[in-house]
Amino acid sequence: MSAPATDFVPPMPTPAWRPPTALGGLLRARRDVLSIFPADAYRRQVMTTRLPGRLILVANTPEVVRDVFVTKHAIYQRKSRFLEDALRPVIGGSSFIAWGDDWTAKRAAISPPIHPSGIAQFHPWYLQAAEETVEDFARAEGPVDVAAAFATGITRVLLLSVFGPYVAREEAAIIAETFTAYQDAAEVVDLFGLLGLPDMLGWLTRRRAGHLARALRGRVARLLDATGPDGGTPLLAALRASLSGEALLDEVVMFLLAGSEGAAITLTWTAMLAAMHPATADRMAEELPAAPPAFADLPGFTFTRAVIQESMRLYPPVAVFARQALKPDRIRRWDVREGDIVLAVPWLLHRHEQLWEAPHAFRPERFLGDAPRQRPRFAYLPFGIGPRICAGAAFGMAEVSVFAAILFRRFRFALAPGFTPRPNCRLALRPKGGMRLVITPR
Asked: Residue 334 in contact with residue 48, Cβ under 8 Å?
């Protein structure tokens, strides 16, 4: 259904009228996964591409998503090989890419410290990092790349949560900048592997990405060493009770990077929406308190939370979930062999024409009142699917809510002159070239 003239439709890639060829799609996906989806991808239920010796299938309806990623979790629990290869240099064998019994053990180690029942203990760190971001914005002259600023601010939250108040503030910026550089360098689509060819050029990419990965891991390893075996926070103590050595380093790096990525990206797109739709920004500011919010205040910010949720619908931080089949299966009329790739694509599901009215329009009201309960359960996947849903979802929503409560109450945002936001999906859905906004006090 098309949007009324009064609807605000924020930036998105213009879909092609016909799908690319298999090779053409792979070449384009190396630069931006979103660019390969044609117009009919926003209404199809299942899509397939057959490569030499491999099938790629997109599950694009809630029923198929539930069947594959929940009912058949045992078959599709493993991340795709190209995602494993892209992330392993940074996060090692952490729970993010582990599978089977290894994933079960590591998930059991990381989940209790960030269980929703204990999130209030992190609230002081949310406030501190948000206030530091306020200071940075207040000192800024000219347009600010808020994508970089939020990546730094949210990484600061994670560092404080793991290492405590004595970790240097500049560590957050260095880690965030290095991870951004790593994402730009990493190969996110294994073109040669998918075509069944030897990788003749991959060493060029791996060399650059490997240098950045070693720098990241080395920096976090030094922070762990500096805290000593009894230092840090209760969260770090809980991790140390179950993990040690490289396994501990893997999970801490994963927590810092994966934990900061989704929240920072959500804040970035939410700030863009506030910049492009001032009426929404004003309504949020009216709802939010002048003083820093208490943790108990957060559930009361219903409209602000709806804006955040709509931002994650339009711009899901992880726009594609890719898994490889561990054994043969059948999905509707397609035979899936071991090693074939099955995708769920929140970018498509969140904009599916059969699931959402005016799917590309910005309407926070979709998340107010009873509206969320009227949608199919697996039409909205901001934090993943099934048993592998993000363990830090409650942590992430709380920190985003605190940052939003402080920043959107105190500042107005506007697009920098001449700047056009461009969604770009590689490992995550970031704005290409950053998000340059002009920030002024309210």
From this structure: yes
Query: How big is the chain, counted in residues?
Result: 442
CA dihedral 396→401→404→409, nearest 10 degrees, is -160
Strands of 345-431, DSSP E: 411-415, 423-425, 429-431
Render pLDDT for 383-410 as a digit per residue (tens, 0 to 9): 999 999 999 999 999 999 999 999 999 9
| C-beta of residue 402 within 8 angstroms of C-beta of residue 308 | no
Whether the Cβ atoms of residue 256 and residue 236 lie closer than 8 Å to each other: no
User: What global pTM score does this model have?
Assistant: 0.93
Residues 174 and 256: beta-carbon distance below 8 Å: no
Structural domains of the chain, ranges and CATH numbers in brackets: 22-441 (1.10.630.10)
Q: Where are the beta strands (DSSP E) in 263-410?
A: 321-324, 329-331, 334-336, 341-344
Beta partners for 437?
Answer: 144, 415
**CA-closest candidate to residue 346, choices 31, 42, 28, 138:** 42
**In which region does residue 373 sit, left (phi positive, over 0), alpha (psi from -120 to 50) or beta (all else)?**
alpha
DSSP, collapsed to helix, strand or coil, labels residue 157 as helix
Q: Torsions phi, psi of 430, nearest 5?
A: -105, 160
Instruction: Tell me the C-alpha to C-alpha distance, in Å, between residue 134 and each of 31, 157, 283, 380, 403.
Output: 33, 14, 20, 31, 9
